[in-house]
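Following up on my earlier thread - several people asked me to post the actual chain instead of describing it. Fair enough. Here it is, all 811 residues.
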Amino acid sequence: MKEILAQISKQHDVKFNYIEDEIILFALIPPKKELNLEQKLNYLSSETKLTFHKISSKYYTISNDKKLDKPLCGFLINDETKIGIENALIIIENTNTSTFSDPNGYFELPKISSNTIKIEHQGFENIEINPEDLYVINCPNFYLKPIIQTLEEVKTGLYLTTGIFKKNDGSIIIKPKNFGILPGLTEPDVLQTMQQIPGIISIDETISNISVRGGTHDQNLFLWNDIRMYQTGHFFGLISAFNPTLSHTISITKNGSSAFFGESVSSLVTLFSRSENNEKPTTTIGSNMISAEFYKKLKLSKTTSITISGRRSLTDFFNSPTFKNYSKRIFQNTEITDLSTNQIVDYNNNVDFYFYDASIQLQQKIGKKNELNLDLITIKNHLDFEEYSATDSSRSELKQTNFGGSLSWKTNWNEKNSTQIISSFSNYNLISENQTLESNQTLNQENKVLDLALKLQHNYAVSNKFKLGFGYQINEIGVTNFDEINLPIFSRTITNVLVSHSGITEGTFESNDKKSLLKLGLRGNYFEKFNVVLIEPRLQFNQKISSNFKLEILGEFKSQTLSQIIDLQQDFLGIEKRRWTLANNESIPIQKSKQVSIGFTFKKNNWLINLDNFYKEIDGITTSSQGFQNQFEFIKSTGSYAVFGSELLIQKNFGNFYTWINYTFNENNYSFESLTNGNFQNNFEIMHTINWSAIYEWNNLKIALGSKYHTGRPITTPLNLVVTEANPNIIYDLPNRSKLDDYFQMNFSVSKKWNFNDTLNLQTAFSIINVLNTKNSINRFYRVNSNNNSIESVDTYSMEFTPNFSFKLSF
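Reply from S.P.:
Thanks for posting it. Predicted structure:
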């Protein structure tokens, strides 16, 4: 516009007076030279809505409509939901000027150029607008179309609570930032949350002993930003080791996992905490009665961001009621407890315990097609335990750490091809020193795992309906187990290393109407040390039969070479007694699983009914990995188990109030051919489980009340005691013939969020675990009382009435 006015001034010997930002937005085709001055000004006025006032024969002033004297502004709206789009990037091309949309989709720009304005968002199609489109009286709406990604479409909009969804491939997705509330939780602890899902339970209330469809905890694969995590809990299993403020997307797969994932015969849990590059810089600080945490995202440039997070326990600063109850629960029947009276020792004087976790993430956009990510995480539990007598003292120590990192590069070559390369490592270390006061004996133990991995994945979109994926992975895993005793002198170090290669191919078909989804995968594993090849097919099929009814069929073959075993129940102070070990394909075989499930989903009038039936078979387990505390405790044998089960979820929404109940049935049986009476119930069989919750949400206030019920776990009871000159020996009944009493617990939570402005908010929450203070026995074993040569039972009890309070300030 300025150039056009300069040309007219020269041609007709006139001058124009104007305000710069009133004309700088306009760019148009110059009027024809043969036109007279009046015709040219009329043309410019009709194209720009500017007014030309003649002051004299040589001077003109240019003005706009006074109602337009406002910033360039607009609203970005989701074309499907009609809701404002937050964190969209708005850029004036060829300038350094940009901004982000707020939670309502609103944005403002200064009047500096007539260049095109670009609007970008990872979840929506990009658009371009002219600045003139914003130079109107009101702030206009611009509707962005969501990007349709086949496997990102959800199957169920609300699953248990807000922020939890179920996808068409059968996986459960948790979005902690959108998380509603669940009974007993003050924040979205990922491993506590997943226990609300049908088929997932912890038989001893810890998140380090999660059983998915009858499996053991080590049969679950946990990945944090492509890093395998061997330590998943703080407080030795009562708190998730993953900072809930950090996680952005959590995926839980019970069956039918992608062929790009191996090394687990049970579930797959992936945590991706990388935020979108256009997310605004944010700081969050918070605390509860156990720990304090922080989160910080910094924008180093338009294309570079860094995220730092950390959490540390407050347990060495003050002993809250929450901490005391957690301590009573986790240190029962361990070296920290006087077993004769089952009373907890005085923690103020004898125990020093703390934990922390920290992470750092760097995200770098390289051009429009490439992205580089660097992720580092460290997790630690540390316990010092001292015993005193009148004449002597002893000190024991337990340290558990997991440090990992990953470097990934992803590029989109074109609309059809993309490639991703990921290198990662994970280093786990469990060290204990146990000094016995009475005998001056010192036992040193260590369990180390070093996992190195390189993954290559290429995706090719054959058409809108059909996509292919190819990949290669190489893993090198080393495991070291060390034991040393001073009296008598004994030392043992065992180190094993295993290298595996995996080739992957996967195809996905989805019909244009989105009613049919078929995903077939094939994973081939080669283990160098054993010269063994294992082929693992995977299946995901989802068919929309009607507008309200869907059919789902899932299946998979999987394997794993790592497992956790227990040599002695009092190893590592009896707290983290399980140690990681590698398969040797002899006494410790490669575990293999096969599973198939068929499910149905009905959704209508705010009703959701989901039914899954499954059969699962695991071969290659050892007695050492199953935690026996009966006649098989010291017997080494290999075998299998088979699980048949059903999972039912019924959910109903009533506006701001919704309630759900789920029921799980599991029939889980061992088969150990080399053992007498080797066919019996699995130690992890919980035949009947019922979870119920009622949740109310209104104006950032959320209230949840819920209960958990399940039948008791199997136990083996003693028949009599045989006393010999050596040690007394307990004679047991048939294995797992009896059961503990049924388990019941009621939990409560309430949270409130205050939004002070667009960037500052405070969230508080209060919870109670075991509202009714129900006393539940969650484990029982038997031992000989040497004082009177009798059999006595030792019970481990569930968490007592335990309140907790948290706050979280974000700005």
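Helices lie at 2-12, 20-23, 37-48, 190-193, 321-330, 347-350. That should answer part of your original question.
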